[in-house]
Design a protein that fits this description.
The complex is a heterodimer of chains A (about 240) and B (about 120). Chain A contains six helices and seven strands. Chain A is α+β, with helices and mostly antiparallel strands. In chain A, the strands form two sheets. In chain A, strands 2-4-5-7-6 form a five-stranded mixed sheet. Chain A has a two-stranded antiparallel sheet with strand order 1-3. The two termini of chain A are about 15 Å apart. The chains are: A alpha+beta (about 240), B alpha/beta (about 120).
């Protein structure tokens, strides 16, 4: 395979992975929103039930109604936050390259993985430096790469299933460390168990991934974008 | 009729329990399968309404555990996921399968129907 064919194969893999990632994030967010709507539906119904009971002669209890109204507003706030996160992810596709704060992007991807983590009874905390971690990259593809890494980390989290994602600037870009994976007292071949699509993403992003099984850590290094590598392929 | 509600979303399950209470249904509720199994060990129930997708164990796994304690119990599955696969599995495994958001009157009808069968 020549360089052009290799490049085209990498982009095909990245395109398929991007669709899978966006689909998974959309499905997860829509499921969470539906759960919030289900709660709002029941709360509204309960308010109706309470009103009907008052009409039938039961003593009015304004505190009970006020509590339900407050809980409905809280569910709306939570649903709005989920919609906001999905909207922010959608807007990462606005440009093939841009300077973004990697720590903010990590927080976004962590938030979008909330349901997946909860289902796996795993907590994820993100932390970054106060000064910010700017990097010029393809924002959506970096989010996708972080998402794949988080997926690996969630399935490999060590007890008590608590992951930490640390974003830090490096001399050449940013480093994202996912800590809290099960420690394995052996070396594995680089890339073992890693989805091929992640390698394609790393190729496009000019990133490196190191899985330190002895430390229970995944380290993603991303260098600033080369204008010729992270844009949409027209091959 | 005594009903056990299990859903990991506490606000949903507690509100649903209150609404069923308004309709004369005797309800107990919990957010975990572990507690549900413990409750089934202490009390007899006619029907369990289970969320299909929960952390730690699915509604389908929980149904099997409950059945080992109270084999005569009936089951209604509830899901917010709504995929065709969920619908197929849920319909095959439970006496009824309902999608969220729930219609409370439809739930009450389903409870009465499964108890009557």
């Amino acid at each position: 395979m020549n360089v052009k064919e290799t490049n085209a194969a990498v982009w095909r893999s990245v395109t398929a992975e991007s669709l899978r990632f966006f689909g998974a994030m959309s499905a997860s967010a829509s499921h969470e929103i539906r759960n919030k709507l289900a709660v709002i539906n029941e709360k509204a119904g309960l308010v109706e039930d309470i009103a009907a009971a008052i009409r039938s002669g039961r003593a009015a209890d304004p505190d009970r109604l006020e509590t339900q109204a407050r809980k409905i507003a809280e569910q709306v706030r939570q649903a709005n936050r989920i919609v906001g996160a999905l909207n922010r992810l959608a807007h990462t596709t606005d440009q093939d390259q841009g300077t973004i704060d990697a720590a903010e992007l990590v927080s976004l991807v962590v938030e979008l993985h909330g349901r997946k983590a909860a289902m796996a009874q795993t907590t994820i905390a993100a932390s970054g430096p106060e000064i910010g971690t700017p990097v010029r990259t393809n924002p959506f593809l970096l989010a996708n790469a972080i998402g794949v890494c988080l997926g690996l980390a969630i399935s490999g989290a060590d007890e008590p299933r608590s992951l930490t994602v640390v974003t830090e600037p490096t001399e050449h870009g940013v480093r994202i460390r996912i800590q809290g994976l099960s420690r394995v007292d052996r070396d594995e071949a680089p890339g073992e168990g890693r989805p091929p699509s992640l390698d394609a993403l790393l190729n496009i992003l000019d990133g490196d991934l190191e899985e330190d099984h002895r430390c229970g850590e995944i380290v993603l290094d991303v260098k600033p974008a080369n204008p010729n590598t992270t844009g949409v392929s027209h091959e | 009729m005594k009903v056990l509600l299990v859903d990991d979303e506490q606000e949903l399950v507690s509100t649903l329990a209150e609404r069923l209470g308004f309709r004369g249904v005797d309800v107990r509720w919990t957010t975990t399968g572990q507690e549900a199994v413990a409750m089934v060990g202490r009390e007899r129930f006619d029907v369990a309404v289970l969320d299909v997708k929960m952390p730690r164990q699915s509604g389908i796994q929980l149904k099997k555990e409950i059945e080992s304690v109270q084999p005569e119990m009936k089951f209604i599955f509830v899901t917010g996921h709504g995929s065709e696969e969920d619908f197929r599995v849920g319909s095959a495994e439970a006496d009824r399968y309902l999608a969220k958001p729930l219609d409370i009157e439809a739930l009450v009808r389903a409870l009465k129907e499964v108890v009557a069968t």
